[in-house]
Amino acid sequence: MQHKTRGIVLHNSAYSDIYSITLIYTEEFGRVSYLTAKSKSRKTKTPKSLFHALAVLDLEVDHRNLRDIQRIKEAKAHIPLVSLLNNPVKSAIGIFLAELIGKVVKEVQTNKILFDFFLQSVRILELTDKSCANFHLVFMITLTRFLGFYPDDSGYTEGMFFDMQNGIFVRCKPLHPHFLNPDESRFFYNLLRIKYENMTAFKLTGSERKAIITAILEYYRLHLSHFPEIKSLEILHEVFG
């Protein structure tokens, strides 16, 4: 049956000489794998150039519930992502976030609130003319709300430890190794106040940003089963030093 939906491109993988499998998070169906042509011809209704990381597309699809790989009849850009494609910092962030979403969001049903968060995030990344060095930190922390393990920061006071295994701040050092020390915990608590609107107010060195990304990914790993390595993380580290 044919449907129209918006979708956000997450990943492309080779399938044959003429086709790729493209993972897209759609507004109507959640996470979907689509068969896409590798053709660069201007006559095709699904040009290869459209299917880059975080591309937001208007799709006409042939969707059948019993089929593992769906088909796209036509694709058009919903938002032209000029800045995201041409700015190396934004491009690295986009690749990282697309990979992260693809590995942590497994929903194959409609979740329009989550889709709206992704769509808003892509728009902000594309349009901002301010530093976006902390953009992915905001995204990663906010995404935990949708995944069900946003840190409980109620009752935090100076000197507490953040227990990453249980997602809470505690007064006594946990007996397991998955925690942040009081200085790291204070920094992490302050980081929970960060939003897209104020992300430039948080000044971090490259080493500080690398450390907090590592901590957040460990937090993800503790709360998600089978959480794999994020391969594009090294690209992000290279960009931010």
Can you offer a commentary on this structure?
With about 240 residues, the protein is an alpha+beta fold. The chain has 2 domains: about 1-75, Nucleic acid-binding proteins (OB fold (Dihydrolipoamide Acetyltransferase, E2P), Beta Barrel); about 80-150 and about 190-240, Up-down Bundle (de novo design (two linked rop proteins)). It is built from 7 helices and 8 strands. The protein has helices at about 80-85, 90-105, 110-125, 135-145, 180-190, 205-225, 235-240, and strands at about 1-15, 20-25, 30-35, 55-60, 70-75, 160-165, 170, 180. The strands form 2 sheets. The chain has a 5-stranded mixed barrel with strand order 1-2-3-5-4. Helix 4 packs parallel to helix 6. The longest helix is centred in the C-terminal third of the chain and has 18 residues, at about 205-225.
CATH topology of the largest domain: de novo design (two linked rop proteins)
CATH C-level class of the largest domain is: Mainly Alpha
Beta-strand residue fraction: 15-25%
Shape call: elongated
Helix and strand succession?
EEEEEHHHHEEEHHH
Q: How many runs of DSSP E, i.e. beta strands?
A: 8
Low-confidence stretches: none
The CATH architecture term of the largest domain is Up-down Bundle
> Please, how many helices?
7
How many domains, as an integer?
2
Mean pLDDT: 92
Distance between the termini: 48 Å
Radius of gyration over all CA atoms, rounded: 19 Å
Helix/strand-derived category reads: alpha+beta
Q: Helical percent range?
A: 25-40%
Report strand order across the widest sheet.
1-2-3-5-4
What composes the largest sheet? Answer: 5 strands, mixed, barrel
